[in-house]
Amino acid sequence: MLLIHCPYCEEDRSELEFRWAGEAHIARPENIAAISDEEFAEFFFLRNNEKGLTYERWRHIHGCGRFFNAARDTVSDRFLMTYKAGMPKQPIPVMEKAVAIAEEKTVETWEATEGDAR
Amino acid sequence: MVDSGIEMATRTSSLFGLHGGSSAVRLEAAPAAERISLRVHAENVSALSGALGVDLPVKPKTSASANGRTALWLGPDEWLVIGEGGYDIGNSLMQAAANSGALHSATDVSHRNVAILVSGPGAAAAINAGCPQDLSLKAFPVGACSRTIFGKIEIVLLRTAEDAFRVEVWRSFSDYAFGLLAEGARDAAL
Lengths: 118, 190
Known about the structure:
The complex is a heterodimer of chains A (about 120) and B (about 190).
Chain A: E1 3-6, E2 11-14, E3 19-23, H1 37-44, E4 53-59, E5 67-73, E6 78-84, H2 95-103, H3 110-114
Antiparallel strand pairs in A: 1-2, 3-4, 4-5, 5-6
Chain B: E1 26-29, E2 33-39, H1 45-52, E3 63-66, E4 69-75, E5 78-84, H2 92-98, E6 105-108, E7 113-119, H3 123-127, E8 145-150, E9 153-161, E10 164-170, H4 174-188
Antiparallel strand pairs in B: 1-7, 2-5, 2-6, 3-4, 4-5, 7-10, 8-9, 9-10
């Protein structure tokens, strides 16, 4: 079970209490009636769907009920950081950590894990 | 007028007649209570605290009790306030909040929720049968409260003593909650 840090409850809670809520930092147009169909499609339908580091909105729906933002690695499913809604996009505090995650290789051969077993 | 008895209809708790528990856990329905769901901006919290006679806690996962009322922190601007006694629509909590004179949103949820009291040495284990939270005394001390998940439903959990919890659950889910707690209670006694 994943533990997700809720910036409002200020502690790690089980993933069961949370819901994913789409890509973060998408600003609603100031005057939505004035924009073209293409611009509307860009705002409303099109998402980056990045592989790797991605910024998402999450909601602590079965806890404090608040929306917040999270930086998550979509390959490893690891949450790199979470921060309150309304804050600008935050840099990953330890970028090396993100790089290390990207380069992480798990070695699980029989020799490595069971080789010593007698 | 002939007393037919029809006008004597009484309200029955959805937990009426349910029984469960084990040698380690005692399960019982809590007495009827008044409840409001309260939303208040930070600048009006002190006004509502004064009107309700209980300090609305502003720290996550904490509750406060005074004058027979308990205020549970649910979110940064959201509280569940439980008052002992009455059960009527237009209850004293609603009136107290309205008398505060400060901007707020209060909804009477006295009939929406029912509460199950879980006590005994296996109380935390019984709740953990369906709840993923850490209920050790270090992480969830007496007075701690949280909206969380219990099996397939949402509950509000309040620790009233070292080995006692109050489980607030929506009325229509109370059968499920009681059943799962009863199973958890059996497992906790093994």
